[in-house]
TrEMBL record:
<dbReference type="GO" id="GO:0030170">
    <property type="term" value="F:pyridoxal phosphate binding"/>
</dbReference>
<protein>
    <submittedName>
        <fullName>MOSC domain-containing protein</fullName>
    </submittedName>
</protein>
<dbReference type="GO" id="GO:0030151">
    <property type="term" value="F:molybdenum ion binding"/>
</dbReference>
<dbReference type="InterPro" id="IPR052716">
    <property type="entry name" value="MOSC_domain"/>
</dbReference>
<feature type="domain" description="MOSC">
    <location>
        <begin position="18"/>
        <end position="168"/>
    </location>
</feature>
<dbReference type="GO" id="GO:0003824">
    <property type="term" value="F:catalytic activity"/>
</dbReference>
<dbReference type="InterPro" id="IPR011037">
    <property type="entry name" value="Pyrv_Knase-like_insert_dom_sf"/>
</dbReference>
<dbReference type="Pfam" id="PF03473">
    <property type="entry name" value="MOSC"/>
</dbReference>
<dbReference type="InterPro" id="IPR005302">
    <property type="entry name" value="MoCF_Sase_C"/>
</dbReference>
Length: 180
């Protein structure tokens, strides 16, 4: 089971979008080299206000490119990096992965999935009405968050568009992703 990376993005300053790069370097225990959200402790501004010492479970943001196809059918144009993700993929149902899944990105990098990205109000500021597209409802009324997943870096390496993504599911019972 696997897919491919279609874009990589990073930004050294707090901004909703992240410019696409030729490559990014993942650093074990840190995240994306030079990215504002990298670090062993939380770097998301809202979370830092609550407790800046909590571990950073959001070192790398991954987004499935198929979401862009979905929102395009609803009249929105979104490109890689514009929703703040670091790694854009195609061919993997990221949202269906269980917590603890390991993703091998390129030749050496390995990230471990920690949970879902929580969509924030900045999505509607980026394009009015887009939030409704990235938060759906299941048949039983539960919220479905489609704005990507978060991960921590276990093994570093350079990652580029075109690199393969290999999926390694965890052993034991699979735990559904929750917002981190």
């Amino acid at each position: 089971m696997g897919g491919k990376i279609t874009a990589v993005s990073s930004n050294g300053t707090y901004s909703f979008t992240k410019p696409n790069r030729e490559s990014i370097t993942l650093l074990a225990g840190f995240g994306v080299e030079g990215d504002v959200h990298g670090g062993a402790t939380v770097k998301h501004r809202f979370r830092m206000k609550k407790d800046p010492s909590q571990p950073n479970l959001r070192q790398v943001h991954l987004m499935h490119e198929e979401l862009f196809d979905e929102v395009r059918r609803a009249g929105f144009e979104v490109a890689a990096g514009e929703l703040g993700e670091n790694v854009t993929t195609r061919g993997i149902d990221l949202l269906a992965l269980p917590r603890g899944t390991r993703l091998r990105l390129g030749e050496t990098a390995v990230v471990e999935v920690t949970g879902l990205r929580n969509p924030c109000a900045q999505i509607d500021r980026f394009q009015k009405g887009l939030m409704k597209q990235v938060v759906g409802r299941s048949e039983d009324g539960r919220a479905l968050f489609k704005s990507g997943i978060m991960a921590v870096v276990l093994a570093g390496g350079v990652v580029r568009a075109g690199d393969a993504v290999a999926v390694e599911l965890p052993e034991g019972p699979h735990l559904a992703l929750e917002i981190v």
